Structure formats: structure tokens, C-alpha cells
Amino acid sequence: MKQGSVLLFILYLSHHAFAQGHENYLIEECLKNSYTDRSCEKVFCQPWQTCIAGTCLCKIPYQCPKNGTSVCSNIKRNFQTYCQLKSFECRQKSSNFLNRGTCNPGDRFDVLFSHTISSSEGIVQVELSNSEISYICGKGLTMNEANVICRHLGFDRGADGKELIEPEEDQDSTECLKATCRGIETRLAECGLRRMSLTTGKWAKVTCSTGQRDCIDREFRCVNGKCILSSRTCDGMNDCGDLSDELCCKACKRKSFHCNSDVCIPSSYVCNNELDCLTGEDEHNCNKTGGTEEEESNQVRESMDEERKRIKTLLPGLSCGIRSHSVTRRKRIAGGFIAQDLEFPWQVAIKGEGHRGVICGGTYIGGCWVLTAAHCVHKSRLHVYRILTGTTHMLIFNAWSETYSLRDMIIHENYNSETYENNIALLEMKTKNAGIPCSPPETVPICVPWSQYMFKVGQQCKVSGWGRDEDSTRQYALKWGYVNLMDNCSEIYKNRYFRGMECAGTADGSVDACKGDSGGPLVCFDSNNVGYLWGIVSGGENCGKGGHPSVYTKVAHYYDWIARHTGINLIAKYNL
């Protein structure tokens, strides 16, 4: 083989390995779900959206907070708040943001291409209300701004690319406008604009995506049909325009941040006083005092992003999953621990009338509702069951313990008593006084997870209950232990393991759920120590033996089913 051929062969191998390395960042199984910036399995919805069945859907304008900055739309219609305008735009797509405040006859903000080769590409110009025409700076322009510019011009998929162009020698202006966008805006008018000197800069040229084509090797097909280089996936930058290049990542490149849900976000989103990762790790261990703001003396337009973040703080939110008193974390897991009073304020016990022991465990999720396993209860015995809240020891009285009878019972319509598929049930407690909602003393609702990606294999969580120990001895004190989420259950339980199930345990089986723990909670905690009901003790075999972890009903899989029966406002921690 000739030397030149050897060199070419080495370059081919090197390039092929580079491409393969970038492809290895992506999770193929996740990509099949076609997640985008409207998938609340992966991201938070915007304030003008709400999460329904895994998708961010448009709110009705009146569902927005009434406080906020008044704005004017491009069809000269006044809106009370920015959220209301975005909600209207989301639903009607006929009125877009123009500027803050009330509308005036001379208001305008136009984006146009100059030096065009075609209608879909050119050097970007902006015409403001005073008829001033300015070029957009090329320096600092990212795909966020490029995508917004193209959407502003009617190209829904955003931009295919951007480049820097030398200013013309005879052009008079020594300034350009630096645009700063988050990338979710529909018009450039929503982004921040500042005057910058052109002495060392260049103009921005943008090419918009016009039609779908076949992606070539080393390219990634976005959900919206656009093709981008595979090397631009999982880098924290929304190159696709619909975020689909950042939502299924094993790891993140460059200086981006990897969320536990396998989403890559820009490093600038970390510690910015806004949750971007579903379980809050981007705002964990942050100095919340904030730094000094960037000098904005050359500001032409203020970004609406701060207003978007402020609207989020005005939305109602549930308080759940937070213990009312501090508990010292104990590191040893062998054998489990006796629970302290109120250590698990969402744990309830299900008893039968006149029954001394606990039939099953359950978890309080708010209102009058308790979640448990379907195999724990029978509709015909509704009048017999009693729910005990606020207790840790069945033989010791405490002042905050309360007993409730049941008003209703909802067993999953597809529950299979032989296989334990869909092993989940809702119990509605009967109020003590007519017209007064249930409010168990010292009982705190657990948060209900809405996404299956909030916690993953290897996460250490807590299981609790009054079940028998490894010697099958009845327990009267509430016990708990650390277990890890596992991913090999389909191999262990084969045709008895179904979608909507999860396994958890320890390698040696030293901590495990046993008989009597059924229906009780498997709780995982996010970065801010907020607890989520990740699983309901469902079944398993060989309690306390290594290699046979317990099987749990995966609650996130049943979020919509729970919301349908209890009302979404009861369990939706965010996006209300």
C-alpha cells in the first residue's frame, strides 16, 4: 500500500471513530420516543403551557397569572401580560410579541434579509420603530438566535446554519446589534438587543431551513425533520430548534451540564435561579445571592426572558414531599431502621375493622386520597377498611395519629390479579365533618412523579412499611431501609415483569420489602431533598435473598390515570 493511501486510510479511521464517538453520546431507545421541547417527560413546560399526557399543551389566556407586564402584539392588540399573549399565540398563532407596554401607531419591529441569494438566506437586518435599520452582529450569534430569526421570518424549523460576513467598505454604520435569545422565542423582538462596535466584528448571515431532505452519514435527524451534524448533538445548544438534539444524551460535550434525566443544558443555566433539570440538580449547592448584572448602557431592547422566569414564580405550586422536621441521614443500610415519629409523614397503614395488625401500607398524596397496591384491597370490603395516618407504632398511641374510613375505592381497570400487572389502587378517605376536606394532622402529601426519567437505575431510595422481617416475624414498628433502583428485572422475572413495573433492592438482599409491606411507598429524593413516590410495593419472591429484588408499581407510568381520578391540580407540582 502506498504511503499516501496509508495516510488517507488513517484519516478515514480517525474520522470514522470521531463520528462513532459522537453517536455514542445518544440513547437510541430514548430517541425512538421523538422528544421535543414540548415533551414534559423531559423538560418543564413554559408558563403559558400545561403538562397533559406527557405533552406541553397551550393554556387558555385566563389561566395565566394576572400580574405581569402589559405588552403589545404585532397586530397592535394590547395584552394584560406577556403570558396571556404567549398563550394566545400558542393557541391561535395569529398574534406575536411586538414590544412592552401599550400599543402605539408607530410601533414596529421588522426582520429582513439583505444581500440575498434566496428568500431563505441573507445578512440579517432589523428595522425599529424610528425607521432605523441596523445589522445583527455576527460575533456572539449562536444557533439560538439564528433559529429565532428564521422563525420570525416564517421558517418554522429554524435555521440550517449561520456565518460571519465582513461589512461592506462603504457602509456608514460603525455599530451592529448583538442579539441574545434563549432559543424558545418565536420572534426576535422577544430577545435582548444591545449596540456593539463593529470595529472588530462582522455581520450575521443566516440560512433558514426550507425543506426536508435525507440526512447523510454523520448527520442527526431532528424530530422536526431538520438535519444537523452529529457532532452538534448533546452539547447544550438547541441546534435543532425543537431541542430534540439535547434530550436523549448519555453524557454532554464541552461545557454543557448533564441532567439526571439525560438532558444536556447550557452551563449558563446552572445556578440561574430557575429549575431546568427535572430533579433540580442544576440549582443544587448554589450561591443564591447572584452576581453583578452585565452593564446594559447600550441596551436597545430588554429580553423578555426575565419576565418569563418571573411569571413562573407567580404560578401556583404544590407543597409536597418535604418532611416537617429534620431527620439525620443514616448511612448504614443492613437490616433497616426503626422510623422516628413523623419521619415518613406520607406513610399510612391500611387495617381491617378489629384487625390488630397492618394489612398493607399506603401513601398519602393529598386531599382525601391514598395510593396503594390493587392486590391489597377488595371493593366488597370498602366499609371494613380503616386508614391510619401519622403513626409509626401500632401498639403505641400518639397525639397526631388519626383514623379514617373509606368513601370510595378505585382499582385500576386493567389490574390482573394473577400477574399483578397494573397493580395500583386509589383509596378515598371519608371526611370527618361534612364539607371540610380531609386534613390528617402532621401528615404531608408525597409528590407524584410525572416523568419516568426523574430517577434512574442506581438511584438510592427509601422503602418503608410494617411488613414481616426476614424471619417472618410480625412487626408493629414502622421500619425503613435504603434500596437501589435496578434494571435487570425482566431477566429475573421474565414473563411476570411488565411495563409499568420497577425493581429495587440491594445486591445481597439485606434490605428488602416483605409480606405486609405491600402497597407501601418507595420514595426517591431529588437534589433539594423533595420526596417523590417512585414505586408502590407490589411483589417479588424470596424476600431478603440476594438476586431477587422486590417488584414495585412504577407510579410515573400511572400519572395520567391518577390525575384523571383525583384531578390534576391535586398532584401537579408544577405547570399548573
Could you walk me through the main structural features you see in this protein, from its secondary elements to its overall organization?
The chain has 576 residues and is α+β, with helices and mostly antiparallel strands. It is 13% helix and 26% strand. The strands form 8 sheets. Strands 25-26-27-30-29-28 form a 6-stranded antiparallel beta barrel. Strands 19-20-21-24-23-22 form a 6-stranded antiparallel beta barrel. Strands 6, 7, 8, 9 and 12 form a 5-stranded antiparallel sheet that branches. A hairpin with a 5-residue loop joins strand 15 (257-258) and strand 16 (264-265). The protein is elongated, with a radius of gyration of 28 Å. Residues 1-22, 290-294 and 328-334 have low confidence and may be disordered.
Write the layout of secondary structure elements.
Layout: H1 3-23, H2 28-31, E1 49-52, E2 55-58, E3 71-73, E4 78-79, H3 82-92, E5 97-100, E6 110-118, E7 121-127, E8 133-135, H4 143-152, E9 159-165, E10 175-180, E11 192-197, E12 203-208, E13 219-221, E14 227-229, E15 257-258, E16 264-265, E17 299-301, H5 305-314, E18 337-338, E19 347-352, E20 360-366, E21 369-372, E22 385-389, E23 402-411, E24 425-429, E25 460-465, E26 479-486, H6 489-493, E27 501-505, E28 521-525, E29 531-539, E30 550-554, H7 559-566, H8 568-571
Antiparallel strand pairs: 1-2, 3-4, 3-5, 6-7, 7-8, 7-12, 9-12, 10-11, 11-17, 13-14, 15-16, 18-26, 19-20, 19-22, 20-21, 21-24, 22-23, 23-24, 25-26, 25-28, 26-27, 27-30, 28-29, 29-30
